[in-house]
Amino acid sequence: MTRSLPLLLVLLAVLCLIQVFGLSRLTLFGVSPDIVTTFVAVISVFTGQRTGMTYGFASGMLTGLLSGNIGVSLLTRIVEGFISGYCHVPEKSHATMTQKSRMLYLAIVLASFFGNLVFNLFNDPLGESLAYRIFISGTLTCMMNLLLGIALNKLFLRKTLSE
Amino acid sequence: MQKFFNFLVKHNAYLLLLLYCSVALLVIRFEQDDLLSKIRSGGTELQASISDKITSYGYLFNLRKENERLMKINAELLSNVLRDQTVLHDEKNRRALFADSAAASSGYITARVIDRKFSSRENMLLIDAGKKRGIRRDMTVLTPQGLVGRVIFVSDNYAKVMPVIHSDFKVSVSSDRSNALGILSWNGGAEHLAAIEHVPISSPLKKGEMMLTTDFSTFSPRSIPVGRVIRIKPDKLFYSIDIRLAVDFSSLTYVLVAPLKTDPEKIEAFHEDLPQEQPGITNPVN
Questions:
Q1: β partners of residue B4
Q2: CB–CB of A74 and B13 under 8 A?
Q3: At A154, which CATH number?
Q4: Domain total for chain A?
Q5: Are B186 and B171 in contact (CB under 8 A)?
Q6: What is the ipTM score, two decimals?
Q7: Does A115 touch chain B (CB under 8 A)?
């Protein structure tokens, strides 16, 4: 992971662009899937809280710049990186691929939920009640991101998880 | 001290979180400041330009569909524009009619030409005013430019007008300068030309003089312009005169109908010695 830092940064930038200009437009009940959250969760699971938070900080800066909401975006991504870091699977872990996958999914759900929580504490773009935004939108966001995570896992992460 | 460093090493993730969160909160706090505002506006510019690029690529894929949609809108707009232009044009004509005459204050009735029978020998106009609006047979129809014709048939809501460019139409005219008298008639052909008959060669009529209606007419008020003399050719007893009609019949939309100039005694006196008029044939008497 450390060796491929430039690659990951480029990937992060690309994912931020995809999120802001593509996925953020695919809304269901006002909620859209967030590939950046999924990415930050994946990084946190494989490299730990500190790296996860740092990637969260960088991605927050990028998405914030593009969406015009830098501060909240920063805070949201940092929290996502920090929370998903609790599901960190060390490199020399003897966990099976299924266990690693479960940790990854848990990290995505936690990151999505808490990220959504932080974002909604500071923002109310649709004028909904806070409870609705936290629980209904939060649940929907978790489900969407989880589906995204499962798809990414099946498509790209099998090799990384099997190592 | 050692304990403090151990604490830091042990809880460095929390410290990093604290640091990052502080930065984020500071950014939130000072988001409206000059520097951050500039950064934000730069970001918005960037987003807008990228969005624009993405959208422009998207358009390429939807070009055909978009084109069809635009064509549809274009057709709708065109029909709207045409309709509006027609209304505007009609309104403009109507206003011009009132602006150039004393129509509004003198009992003149405005009417729109709604149909026209057009042939080289016979022209007939239909106007959208009838008995209900006070139109009567033999009323004079005119525009500010000049004489149009006379009403020959009236229904409740419409009236038929025999225009100057009708072979049966005749009206007494006189020139504005020399007061030469004659009878205006139309012999078919070009709708901007008519002839003046019965002008004796002794008359001082000149080319370019304006011909106006006279008081001799049984239906028309006097001094309505009819046309301008463009050609004078002497025959044995009378001049053969062509005039260019004052009214452009090709673009006639709104007309005025003058109140009836009825003087029964005059008409009675005029008809006293004339043979009986044949039914169905328009009275050629001017």
A1: none
A2: no
A3: 1.10.1760.20
A4: 1
A5: no
A6: 0.86
A7: no
